[in-house]
Write a structure and sequence with these properties.
- This protein is of the alpha/beta class.
- It has one domain (11-240): Vaccinia Virus protein VP39 (Rossmann fold, 3-Layer(aba) Sandwich), CATH 3.40.50.
- Helices cover 38% and strands 15% of the residues.
- The chain has a seven-stranded mixed beta sheet with strand order 3-2-1-4-5-7-6, with helices on both faces.
- Strand 1 (91-94), helix 6 (100-107) and strand 2 (112-116) form a beta-alpha-beta unit.
- The chain is globular.
């Protein structure tokens, strides 16, 4: 079986990445991804309206609700897909939801195994974040600790649930099994993703290598951050 063609043209992107296309329809095809930068640009150019119409205020919010349910909490841009392709590593995604990110990566030629405790199914309401939708790509039902079964893959966590321990359990299982590479898409400490323990673990045990803005909805400040695991200091000292 031949490998899927990579997403390389604007036409491919709009046809095969409908979430990105819908985000562009809301914010404009020339809009920058970072919502803070967009706001500053609107202030600088005088295009910001302090009192938009009710319709203008509601439209982005309604679009986000629809897109979160149908696709994913975070919008995979062509730049982030290409960046993940370039790390040249198979991926294990935990908390994959509808499998939308997994599909975009698989379409780009990346080897992905995707898991979720409650993959959305047409007649089941166990996943209340993605009601009345189906999987975009295969997502296997499993607990978050399944990440520990794939230490040789890069762990991908996209918008882990707020104030829940899913991301913490996945990250600790993965690192405990020897996993060393993480891509986290979400907000920072105090934001809408993960619990305090997760962000504390990132600060203590993981080194930030790079980050990229993903297409952000109004009021959302999520980024894709690439991490490498750092060993405890006592282990470093013992090896010297």
């Amino acid at each position: 079986m031949s490998s899927p063609a990579r997403i390389t043209t604007a036409t491919d992107l709009e046809v095969r990445n409908p979430l990105y296309h819908e985000w562009r329809e809301v914010f404009g095809h020339d809009a920058v991804y970072d919502s803070r930068v967009r706001f500053e640009e609107e202030i600088r150019t005088g295009s910001y309206r302090r009192s938009p119409s009710i319709e203008e205020s509601i439209r982005p919010h309604q679009a986000r609700i629809r897109c979160v349910s149908r696709y994913s909490w975070a919008v995979p841009s062509p730049e982030i897909i290409e960046a993940i392709v370039r790390i040249d590593s198979p991926i294990v995604e935990v908390g994959a939801g509808t499998g939308y990110w997994a599909k975009m990566l698989r379409d780009a030629g990346v080897d992905v195994v995707a898991f979720d405790q409650h993959p959305p199914e047409p007649d089941l309401a166990a996943n209340h974040w993605h009601k009345n939708t189906t999987q975009w790509s295969e997502v296997i039902r499993s607990d978050a600790t399944v990440a520990g079964d794939f230490p040789d893959r890069t762990l991908l966590l996209v918008w882990p649930p707020y104030d829940e321990d899913m991301a913490t359990r996945a990250l600790r299982a993965y690192a405990g099994a020897g996993g060393r590479q993480l891509i986290y898409v979400g907000e920072g400490p105090g934001g809408c993703t993960g619990d305090d323990a997760f962000h504390e673990d990132l600060e203590r045990w993981w080194v930030e290598l790079a980050y990229m803005a993903v297409p952000q909805w109004f009021g959302i400040h999520d980024y894709a951050t690439f991490y490498a695991h750092q060993p405890p200091l006592e282990l470093v000292a013992d090896s010297q």
